[in-house]
Design goal:
By secondary structure, the chain is an alpha+beta fold. The protein is 23% helix and 26% strand. The protein binds fe (ii) ion (2 copies). One fe (ii) ion binds next to α2.
Length: 264
């Protein structure tokens, strides 16, 4: 599968309303991106092809067939060993039931909080590996390290780092709106902050900025945003600067809809 694989780029499903593409970004890491026609962001999953393959985010329930077909271009979805949920929301977790049913040996990888607050309290009966900061999940060639990132978006949020390819999986951090190419070199830091502020997905800048002090020394070669494109090392600093300098937290708007009274 290459960046030029046009066959994967046709609009399909739901009256040609959405398109799913597959691109290998760096050795063994595939970005599976779904864009709705007229949608404001892409929804990306990352497939790590290894002895014990991992899917990072499942995608939405409604996107399952296309995402499954995209995975099948790389490997048999029944081989999935890990399905990682970086926080509990429909775009991260909506497809988990069917991926877990099809892959009999798979485990859900979730933060201890996600496992305790969500997986254990809804009627899910899946095999769960709950992980904490510093834990490692070994895929074979790739070693995946866990960063717990509470209140960076959600209470139960975590991020993953693939030590083998120096890849950060930051879920909704470093989002870029629009239909972006698989690899983004452009400075879209301002667009990111404006999108965050109108969507209202971070309660405060503070936990995000504290986390940047952990992420920047990691100096990731790749930052695989869940919405947008993957950001190579040289293109990341403007995004970090934007998060440090611009306001982006909730200021009384949820997806552009004003809630009164706004916080002071
Ligand atoms: Fe989210
Ligand atoms: Fe997301």
């Amino acid at each position: 599968v290459t960046h030029d694989q046009k066959a994967a780029r046709s609009w399909t499903g739901g009256a040609s309303r959405r398109r799913t593409t597959v691109d290998e970004i760096v050795s063994g890491i595939y970005r599976i991106a779904t864009v709705e026609r007229g949608g404001s962001v892409s929804f990306n999953q990352f497939l790590i092809d290894d002895e014990r393959p991992m899917l990072v985010h499942t995608g939405q329930h409604a996107h399952y067939e296309q995402i499954r077909a995209a995975i099948a271009q790389v490997l048999d979805p029944a081989r999935l060993a890990f399905v990682a949920l970086l926080h509990f929301e429909g775009d991260e977790c909506g497809g988990m039931d069917r991926f877990m049913q099809e892959a009999p040996r798979a485990q859900l990888v979730a933060s201890t909080l996600s496992a305790a607050l969500n997986l254990a309290r809804f009627p899910w009966r899946y095999r769960v590996r709950d992980v904490r900061d510093g834990d490692a999940v070994e895929l074979g060639q790739h070693v995946i390290r866990v960063l717990e990132t509470p209140h960076v978006h959600h209470w139960d949020s975590m991020m993953l780092v693939d030590e083998t390819t120096e890849s950060l999986f930051p879920s909704d951090l470093f989002l870029q709106p629009g239909d972006q190419p698989p690899v983004v070199h452009e400075d879209l830091g301002r667009d990111m902050c404006e999108y965050y502020a109108q969507a209202g997905i971070f309660a405060s800048e503070r936990p995000v900025r504290a986390l940047l002090d952990r992420l920047v020394p990691l100096d990731p070669a790749w930052t695989h945003a869940m919405h947008g494109g993957s950001i190579p090392r040289a293109a990341l600093p403007p995004f970090v600067d934007a998060l440090r300098q611009r306001p982006f937290a909730y200021r009384g708007k949820l997806f552009g809809r004003a809630i009164a009274p706004p916080p002071t």
